[in-house]
Amino acid sequence: MSFLEIQIKSNFALVTIKRPEALNALNDVVITEIGEMVDSLESNSQVRGFILTGEGKAFVAGADIAKMKEFNVNEGQAFSELGQTVFRKMELSGLISIAAINGFCLGGGMELAMACDIRYASTAAKLGLPEVTLGLLPGFGGSQRLPRLIGVGRATELILSGDMISSEEGFRLGLVNKVCDPAELLNESEKTLSTILSRGPNAIKAAKMAIRQGLETNMERGLEWEKQLFGGRFADKETKEGLSAFLEKRKPNF
């Protein structure tokens, strides 16, 4: 891949977007490679998650504005559809993802981070959806994911103002899970992902599925979905092992 570096570390991957001369801006090639990365990691039976970060002083500073300036309506819709499709694939994947936000995380970059399961940010990070300052609106799912993450009122203010916020403000709003010293960002991300991946792998996938699907339906349907997933766990040897290990006071062998 020309813009992604993938390092396999035991049961997860560290994925670095490497387009620092453009602050890792997203074009159709970078977005396509992110989708290919998800497919590649899903096909690797040893890998169960990944950490996504950027090279240099940006996570992803947005989409490629120079290219977008030449778009017509159809091209704009196609670019939006590409980003939406790839980010949705990542969001619904059985892989657990952490965005390690090392610097500027703006526009399409923030939309990419929001499609990850968890977001850790450096104290140096700046976040925002500044599309309205360019006469645009978020096109890769930002108008849908941000209200679900932080509430309609706060999301509306951020989207309509286009303002940047600090990682600390992102944490206060619930957009960022944890703020880290820049030197510790990847270590903290790896520590959390390793903890998650030490749990029952099938249970982790089912729990993520319950959360994601529940966000897109009403409470009654969400509870029914949870019941089905919960009951289904009892047909899995993993669950039997987890329950037995607890009763026998030993570490489960997942």
UniProtKB/TrEMBL annotation:
Coiled-coil region list: none
Entry-linked InterPro entries: ClpP/crotonase-like_dom_sf, Enoyl-CoA_hyd/isom_CS, Enoyl-CoA_hydra/iso, Enoyl-CoA_hydra_C
A GO MF label: hydro-lyase activity
CDD domains, sorted: crotonase-like (cd06558)
Signal peptide: none
Any one GO biological process: fatty acid beta-oxidation
Entry keyword set: Lyase
Name this protein carries in UniProt: Crotonase
Naturally occurring in which organism (per UniProt): Leptospira jelokensis
Lineage: Bacteria, Pseudomonadati, Spirochaetota, Spirochaetia, Leptospirales
